Amino acid sequence: MNIKIDRYAVMGNPIAHSKSPQIHAAFAEQTGQALKYDAILVELQDFEQAVQRFQASGGKGLNITVPFKEAAWEFADQRSERAELAGAVNTLWFDEQGRCYAENTDGVGLVRDLTNNHACKIVEKRLLILGAGGAVRGVLEPLLKAAPLNCVIANRTVSKAEALAELFSGHGKLKASSYEALIGQSFDLIINGTSASLQGKLPPLPEGLLNKGGWCYDMMYANTATTFML
Ligand code: ATR
Asked: How confident is the model at residue 201 (pLDDT cuts 50, 70, 90)?
């Protein structure tokens, strides 16, 4: 008997650190799906062609990581409501007619991990988000829905933080900031959404930002603890 093996992949640059192939292989084992899940390194200018090649070769769907989440949003023929607002997606899949659909599960996953797995409360807490790229835009709506007291977005390029604060202003109490302007402020939960960890770097954060009993969370991961976690 021929067993049909579904092909999926994660695309990003860099990609070697991704645990998606192992994670999805574990899910497939639990659900009894015959699946092959590759990690594909995509050159920066080649995202669209790489997705088209994967689809043409029979691939069923992809998860997308740094720095292609906004390009994936652009690429999709149809987006969920949540994905539309996020402006960035981490999931693409194709139907039989070749249409490409997009979803963003980053924010819901982040909120669930914080609240269910780590028993970290977001409601009524002072929240600081570092970074203003696609990863942060993708998680803002679900984070604000969890009703923090207020939320500051700090970014190296402040204009990008300002643009996000404006875009999501209807969803919660939100303010943009430079890293320097954080001096003297403190927070209950600090989420790193910059890609600095992937370069072994840390945004220039002033001392004393974290309240006693507060939480830090790095949205980027590596095989060892990231600079942000240390
Ligand atoms: P992603 O899809 O992961 O968000 P991105 O859109 O390229 O990727 O955004 C990367 C984010 O990490 C940005 O907020 C970037 O800051 P700038 O907007 O100023 O570029 C931030 N970032 C990357 N390297 C950084 C570093 N070394 N220090 C501080 N911030 C950094």
From this structure: confident
